Every structure is written in structure tokens, then in C-alpha cells.
Amino acid sequence: MFIKEYQIKVVLPSEIYNKYKMDTIAYLDIEATGFDMEYDKIVLISLGYYIKEGLFKIVQFFAETPSDEESLLKELKKSMGKFKRWCSFNGTAFDEPFIIRKMYRYDLGFRLPREHIDLFRMIRPFHKKMGIKNCSLKSVEQFTGVKRKDEINGARCVELYNEYLVKHDEKLKEILMLHNYEDVVNLPKIFKVINTIEIDLDLKRKEKLAKKQMSHLKNNRNSNESLKIVNSQQRL
Q1: How far is 124 from 183, CA to CA, in rounded Å?
Q2: Among candidates 112, 103, 75, which has minimal Cα distance to 1?
Q3: pLDDT tens digits for range 30-64
Q4: How many CB atoms lie within 10 A of CB 99?
Q5: Contact criterion met (CB below 8 Å) for 149 and 182
Q6: What burial class does residue 41 get, using C-beta atoms within 10 Å of its C-beta: 0-12 exposed, 13-18 middle, 19+ buried?
Q7: Helix residue ranges per DSSP H, 106-169
Q8: S-S: 179 plus which of 124, 150, 195, 211, CB 3.0-4.6 Å?
Q9: Which residues are within 8 A (CB) of 123 and not within 5 positions of it... i.e. 6 or more apart?
Q10: Cα 103 from chain centroid?
Q11: pTM, 2 dp
């Protein structure tokens, strides 16, 4: 197993950083050799978190052979212990069930934090209205102005990892790790999109409430006017 750590600046507007309590979240992404949770292996994990506002740390666990999978999971368990919230992009469909299944298989007695912030699930209902081409991670990143260095996708990761197992080429490992690294380092930046969605929804709720209140006032006014007419007729 190969472990690499980074500390970099990931600066967000303070109102977003504080609103979402960004320093209490673990940002997570995995790469696997396929989608079969029984037979495929988790071979790369990137875990990110804020040390303080503006300073972000990423730890990567890379399986130099598929047999390193259990070691990767043990390291993840140790690193995730202090977090009660975690964030992913479509982790509900992939990362979460994969990790849960593997932790159970190795009897590691670990559960992911209950609160899972899946940015994909939060953005998907609104991405078309926002002008986001599709709800892929790269499309959302482009929408926020992020420019990635890596040029591969998940399917290509599997091909490159299999090639790495044959050649043990360090350049292949670097390509794989860069891809997974960028999947994690850009997650906090996507909270800008979440914030925009929530502000828009809040404005719509306020507009709806204002219209409802105006309607009540109008109905009350009409009722009062009708009552005045009835009272006037009774006096006559």
C-alpha cells in the first residue's frame, strides 16, 4: 500500500464555509476495479478535510496490489473515526454501498457517518434549470469554474490500474491518483452550487408565502366589505 498526503489551499467564501460547517465534513471518493461488490476491489481512496478555514488536507491510500484492499479499509476506518458527516458525489449509489459491503466482508466493525451529503442527489433535480449540461461531476465542476488537470474517467481508471499491475509504471499510478485527488479536492467548491440552489428555493418559498398572505388579505378585505354592505342594508 502506498500513502500520500497533501495540504493545499481550498478557499471558499466565509459565509458558505460557516453555513455548511465545512470543517466538520469528511470528503471522500473511491476507485474500484469494477462495479461488482463481491469480486471487484477498492484500489484507491482519497479522503479530504479542512484543517482550518482555507487549508485543506487530502490523504490518499493506493493499493499497489488488489490484496491491499483490506489495508486500505483499515486506514480509512482510522481516518474517518472523528467525523460525523461525510460528503461525496453520487456516493449513495457507489462509494457508500461498496465501502459498507467491504467493511462487512473483512469484519472491520466500521460504519460510515450517518449524515451523508451526496452533492449529486442535491443538484440533479435542478441542474437543467441552472444551465448545467448534465449532472456529471466534471460538468458541475466546469459550471463552478473548476479546471481539472486529469483527463480520464472512471472506466479508464480501471484500464490503467490493470495496466499498472502488469507494468508497475509510476506514471500510471500518478495518473490514477491525480484523477481521484481531483474528485475530492473539488467537492468543497461544489457547495457554491448548493448554496445557490438553497437561496433560490428560499426566495421562491418567500414569494409563495407573500402571495398566500396577499390572497388572505384580499379575501379578508372582500369579506369585510361584504359584511359592511349587509349591515348597511339591515339598517335600511
Answers
A1: 18
A2: 75
A3: 999 999 999 999 999 999 999 999 999 999 999 99
A4: 24
A5: yes
A6: buried
A7: 119-123, 137-143, 154-167
A8: 150
A9: 132, 135, 140, 190, 193, 194, 197
A10: 21
A11: 0.85
